[in-house]
Every structure is written in structure tokens, then in C-alpha cells.
Amino acid sequence: MNAPAQIKIGHSTCPHDCPSVCALEVEVLDRDRIGRVRGASEQTYTAGVVCAKVARYAQRIHHPDRLTHPMKRTGPKGSGQFARISWDEALDTIAERFLAAERNFGSESVWPYYYAGTMGRVMRDGINRLTHAKRYSRYLSTICINLAWPGYIAGVGRMAGPDPREMAKADCVVIWGTNAVATQVNVMTHAIRARKERGAKIVVIDVYRNATMEQADVALCLRPGTDGALACAVMHVLFREGLADREFMSRFTDVPDELEAHLQTRTPEWASAITGLSVAEIEDFARLVGNTKRTYFRLGYGFSRSRNGATNMHAATCIASVTGAWALEGGGAFHNNGAIFHLNTRMIEGLDVVDRSTRILDQSRIGAVLTGEEDALQGGPPVMAMLIQNTNPACIAPDQNRVQRGFAREDLFVAVHEQFMTDTAKVADIVLPATMFLEHDDFYTGGGHQYLGLGPKLVEPPGECRPNHDVICALAKLVGAEHRGFEMSARELIDRTMKDSGWGSLEDFEKARWIDAQPPFETAHYAEGFHWPDGKFRFKPDWPKTPFANSGPLGPWRKMPRLPDHWAVTEEADADHPFRLATSPARSFLNSSFTETPDSLAREIRPTVMVHPQDAAEHGIADGDLVTLGNGRGQVRLHAKLFDGVRRGVLIAEGIWPNSKFVDGQGINVLTGDDSPAPFGGAAFHDNRVWLHGPG
């Protein structure tokens, strides 16, 4: 009798655009096949837990619809008509079109475009090395962090905060602006541990009753974009009722007296009218955090989805400075730990050959760029050729009608390196098959925690799939780009980057599997002062001088409030557009990833919009009806889901479904705007006014 085959366990790191960046244990069944994926129990943040979609990753990596060979377009743009070609033909074609664009319009007419479909530092960021070596148009990364990060940094001084594992040591955990059950499952691991072991209260603040709010002890459902008003009213109560830590503020903050005077008129009654919360809800929350010194504010990327997101994030962090929660383990405010890893990515990104005179184009304004808006092009040449990796702008970018018009240009050449035939791949001229994370070597930084994670190659890819790094290096040779990084393997780049960054060698990394980069308590909690020359937390930030990577202030930054406030700059409902629409993440998708896996599709079923039953009744809408949402940007048809967990006048459409899943082939981002919010741009996906029409 044959003995059963022994399953090998490989270790990796989840590559997807999620702050949890989970450490993984992967069943390796064969040289090219995996089984179950589990969270690594020995890594203290992941703590053995991963989301359901990643646990079933075998469905994705072994999906029958994966792209496995290069293809060229044979029919009209967007027709989906392609023919198989060789890698040599594909790369030669891309190089020829890039060189032709450079010859006829200048090097800036080529725009390599990418984002966070993988968070691997080699496979994601290596495209910048090609950009810099060839002096192509550079890339302003705005679509995710550009409102949340400056909002946090404006007060604290850098992007780092208390150890996120300290949530388990808190007496109150405030989960604000993130549906953690759906998007950051490990936040719940540590918050629930605090509840079980310490009797901690869990407060959830969001714009609808989602899965995280269902697990809360205190649930605060406010109107979209009104977080700043709530924060100000909370601080008003703290000052009014003697719950503010004046000693802490005197030592560690810039203008506590000015803040207190400013907040005199920001009463719970004032905030109630703005947020929709009751005065009692606001006051009870304020007293809870004021009387619970060990309160941990876990602030999410929901703040980055409203035009006033930066000011809202800043206002939320200010609460912890008024209470002095920073001073205790299990207290303070945390958003992301990006600053603690101090990575030197010069070799990966080609930072030593950057020409600062080349223009920087805003990824969020790709529609404006491709349709030739002069301000979006910064007076430079049109974009004539693109290589797109790790993102799906034909589905996820704002103002989709304009994006689609841009991609439809006959004179625009687009090469897409992808795993599936996404909406963006469908509008490409050349499609290249890409590896998945278990099929190449890379490493990762955990924004939502403190670990560097390794992702070694565990299995062979199907067909002719190639890693991003290999494609970039091959193309570099053909277009005459020179840099030492093009001559190095992915493993060599990891080793070099780790050594240059002070983290040891790749060999050390492989032995450890992950590296805990958590700074000491005194640093993480700013016990010796916040990250400003005077050590003072900024209640009154100088917004354009916030130390955040940018190309200069954007949007109405001169009008930003100097002190925490409700900044009424959101796209408010009006007579013609009586509803506010938020396009929140779906539990079973991650942006536009996992929209092809069977279990995810079975759970999400179809694109829907949540409508309050009373709003539905007024519009003659029954549950499941096909309804139309619209505004000046376009209109979308999808099915109504009656749900009393949304506020009157608020609509929630979860998930970024492929355009083809909508009745008319028009996805939800037809309705989102691409205007640049202050202070440094971004994409306000949850900040849209729309009309709602029922069936018929």
C-alpha cells in the first residue's frame, strides 16, 4: 500500500492591497500546485488568522481563466478579440511603440502605470526603475493614501504610531473608518482579545451598519464625510467636563488653549445636526474615551475616500492628544507604520537616476490625462504609450466615462501585464501573462503592523507567465534603458535592499521568515515628543508643509481649516441629486481582485446598492428591483437591496465589480469624480451625490 504523500508547508506573505499583510503558511502539493492557505500562528500580528478569500487562494492561482500566454489585439479596441503570440513578438512590439512615441513626441509621452495589485516591493516598484532610466513621465501615486496619510502626519509628524498589537492591551478600542471584518481581519483579532481578556469596549464608527459594526459594543453610524464634526464635539465635551489631560497637552501639544476656545461652539448639538448622531450618542462616546485612558484609536482608509478626509483624519488623531492616551500602553492613535521600515529602494526603483525635471502625472486623473486635458498633462505632450502592471484603471479609476474615452483612442498604445482578462486587459493592444505571488520572489512591508515579510517562490507558474521584474528587465534592454538593477535577479535585489536598509541579508531574512521592526515604546508613543522640531503634536498644522511625498499642494488647500473642524467641502446632496453614494469595499473582493474566484462570486452574487426602506418606498422600489443611479458624470444600473442599516439619503454600493457584471457594462466608478482633493490630491470614492430612479 502506498503511503500518502506528505504535504510540504511553505511560508509566504499575502501580497494584496491590505494593511494586514498577513504572514502565511501554504500547503505545497506539487511543484506547481497549492492547497489550503493559513495564517502563520508564530507571527504575532497575523496570529494564525487570514480572511476567507486568501484562505481559498488555490481557487485563484489555479483558476482555469488565468492568462498563460502573450496576446495581441486583433479586433477593435475593447472588443476582447486577441490572438496568441510569442514573448519575443510581444516585447518587440512594446519596445517599438515606446521608441516610436519617444521619437515623435519625446520620452514623456510614455507613461508606465502601476499600483497595488501586488504590494511586493520588487514586483510593484521595479517599474519605476524603467521610468527613471528612460525619463518617461513619472507617476503620482494618489488613489489610496493621499488624504489619510497627510491627515495623520499633520498632527504626529510622521507615519508611525503605537504598536498595533497593543489593541489587545486597551480598555477601549475605537475602530474608525475601516470595516475591519471585511478589509483588515487581524484588527478584530486583537480588539476581540482585549474584550475577552480585559472587558474592553469596542467602538465602531462608520457610514453604515457593516459586519464590523455588528460586533461593536458602541456603534456610531454617521453621515459620510462628517467625521471631523464628531471629533470636534467629542473634544468639546472632554474640555467641558474636565476630561482633557491638560498636563499632557501643555507638555506635548502646540496650541491647547486656542483649540479649547475654538471648540466652544463645536457642541454636541452642532455636531448632531451635521452627523445625524444624537446628542446622547456623541456625549456618551466622549465620556467613554475621556474616562478610559487606555483607548486605542485604530483609524482606517475610509478617511481617504472623502474630499475632507485629511482634515477628518487629523481631527480624529487630536482626540488622543486631548485625552493624553498616547502616554499609556494600549493607548494612542494608529493608522499606518510606513515610516518604521526605513527602506533604501534605490536599486529597485532606480532612484539614483531620477530626472526631477520630468513631469509627474496623477494616477487618479488618468481619464483627464488620456483625453488630453492640458492641466492634467501639465502642458507636456500627450500620452502615447503605456505599460500597466498591478492595477485595473479601466474599472477602478474615477470618472470612468472619461477613462474609457481615453483608452479608446486609436493612437494610444497600451500593454497590460495581468493575471486575468480584466477590464484594462480588454482595452489593451498587447496582453502579457503575469505570475502570482507564490510563483516569484519578493518581500513586503506591513503598513498595518510592524513586520517585514518574505515571499519566496514556492511553485512554478502555469504556461508562459513571467514576473513583473523579468518583463521590466527584458523591456529595458530593448528600449536602451541602463541601470544596475536590470542586471540583478529578484533575489539579488531583495538581498541588496535589505543590506542597504540595515536589515541584514536575504539569508538572514529567509531564516527568520519575517522581521519585527517595531520601535521601542518611547518612540512609538512619542513619549519624548512628537516628530516635530519642538516635539509638539500639531493641533494647528501647516498643511502644505506636511512631510508627505507629493508634487506640491493640490485642490483647495488654501481653504483648509487651521484647527480641527467640519470642513464642508464634500459633494453634498442637492435637489437634483438627493442622495450621497459611498462605494465601500466588499467582504469577498479586494478592490477588483477576487472578482473571478467562485467562492467570492457566490457570496457577493451581483452588483447591488443598499437603500433605506423608507427611501425605497418613496421611489417605488422593492427589494431586488433594477434601479438607476446617476449624476453629471454618467449613470449606472444595478439591483436594489433594502437595508435599514444605512441612513436616509445615503446609498452604499459594495465592491468594485467588473464592468461586465453590470447590466449596461458600466461600472460604479462612472459616478465618482476625479477632482483633486486637498492637500495633495487623491480619489474621493465615497463622496458622490447621485439621483436614484426606480424601475420602469
Question: What does this 3D model show about the protein?
Answer:
By secondary structure, this protein is an alpha/beta fold. It folds into 4 domains: 8-61, Phosphorylase Kinase, domain 1, CATH 3.30.200.210; 71-144 and 341-438 and 463-488, Rossmann fold (3-Layer(aba) Sandwich), CATH 3.40.50.740; 148-335, 3-Layer(aba) Sandwich (Dimethylsulfoxide Reductase, domain 2), CATH 3.40.228.10; 579-693, Barwin-like endoglucanases (Beta Barrel). The chain contains 26 helices and 25 strands. A hairpin with a 2-residue loop joins strand 22 (626-631) and strand 23 (634-642). Helix 9 (227-240) crosses helix 13 (279-291).
Keywords summarizing the entry:
696 residues; alpha/beta; Phosphorylase Kinase, domain 1; Rossmann fold; Dimethylsulfoxide Reductase, domain 2; 4 domains; six-stranded mixed beta sheet; 26 helices; 25 strands; 17% strand
**Beta-strand content:** 15-25%
The CATH topology of the largest domain is given as Rossmann fold
The side-by-side strand order for the widest beta sheet comes to 5-4-16-15-14-6
- Coarse shape: globular
The helix content, as a percent range, equals 25-40%
Number of domains: 4
| H/I helix tally | 26
Sheet having the most strands: 6 strands, mixed
Question: How many individual β-strands?
Answer: 25
Distance linking N and C termini: 67 Å
Mean pLDDT: 96
Query: What is the CA-based Rg, rounded?
Result: 25 Å
**Which structural class best describes the helix and strand composition?**
alpha/beta
CATH class of the largest domain: Alpha Beta
Q: Give the uncertain stretches in residue-range form.
A: none
CATH architecture of the largest domain: 3-Layer(aba) Sandwich
